[in-house]
Amino acid sequence: MTREPPGCRRVNSLMLYTLRSITSHRSLRPERCATSSQDVFHAFHPNLKFVRKFLKPLLIGELAPEEPSQDRGKNSQVTEDFRVLRKTAEDMNLFKANHVFFLLHLAHIIALESIAWFTIFYFGNGWIPTLITAFVLATSQAQAGWLQHDYGHLSVYRKSMWNHIAHKFIIGHLKGASANWWNHRHFQHHAKPNIFQKDPDVNMLHTFVLGEWQPIEYGKKKLKYLPYNHQHEYFFLIGPPLLIPVYFQYQIIMTMIVRKDWVDLAWAISYYTRYFVTYIPFYGILGALLFLNFIRFLESHWFVWVTQMNHIVMEIDQEPYRDWFSSQLSATCNVEQSFFNDWFSGHLNFQIEHHLFPTMPRHNLHKVAPLVKSLCAKHGIEYQEKPLLRALLDIIRSLKKSGELWLDAYLHK
């Protein structure tokens, strides 16, 4: 049996998401991938020479000149200007990572885990030390989540292989999750953010209705899985509290088992082994298990509020077939920069720039932001940036607005 070269499996996965995002045609011409859709291709592939050789077996024919393009909403001038912007960012070395930054970030995660253990070891397992430790470990888990995100996007090392190894270590050994599961979800999200049936992050399993189109469609069809006019209220009960400890946890474990992803499963087992060896002596088996779920309960709140403040408040609709730049701006918004906001959100307060340049190291996103703002101003594209508190409150306002649209359509259409 022949073995795939290192990185081939990951490259093919990225290729799949790229190709899904750049074409829905019956045929594919590689020249098109290198020209009209090169923005998407460049966004996902830092090493173009390596991945282009995988395009050849995918050629199934040439697109006829008279074949209508599905990118009917594309603005050619915006596309051209964006490529100039990207070239400027490359010339400014904004895709070059500061390795000290990421090492210090990893060090502060390890320091938090050490502080958590020492708190229980020194002060005992009473309620106050336990609560302090839980919050410290939730902070460590949240920050590890932002760090694995960096390596998952290949934004730290020049060689993809080293990013993959670090990614598996951080998401597997430090968090007990699966790198392949994350890749499969997250790159679909990046290719088509906020697009129904293409972005898994807006697949709410009928628990919420999002945007303007979906609630009206549900209302017209008299679909009422839940009282959506109250979704801004029950969001606090089933959104932040349950996403990581229930839904993600189940999905991650089942994905690794069903897909027989034994490497990721081994990494995850190493996390659970380390955790239970550390905390069973203080809490026993059942206590340690309850403690773990409480930590994930806390982390889940942090994760949900940060990730949704940039997306759920933006346009969520069916495929509009726009150019790369315009599609990312319509689905993302920023939160004002500060030291706390950068740390708290893992620099995802620069969500616009991150979506435009997913392989750019996060510590450089603020440097490219003025160029992005300038391009938006030139073409009359809205660049949304808001304070942190307003961004968080907008989540609830957005859910309430969508719920009201559903109720109106349900009763009157």
From TrEMBL:
Residues 126-385 form the Fatty acid desaturase domain. Keywords: Fatty acid biosynthesis, Fatty acid metabolism, Lipid biosynthesis, Lipid metabolism, Membrane, Oxidoreductase, Transmembrane, Transmembrane helix. The gene is FADS2. One of its GO terms (cellular component) is membrane. It is found in: Membrane. It comes from Aotus nancymaae. GO terms for biological process: fatty acid biosynthetic process. It is a multi-pass membrane protein. This is Fatty acid desaturase 2. Its main location: membrane. It comes from the Eukaryota. One of its GO terms (molecular function) is oxidoreductase activity, acting on paired donors, with oxidation of a pair of donors resulting in the reduction of molecular oxygen to two molecules of water. The chain crosses the membrane at residues 100-120, 126-147, 234-252, 272-295.
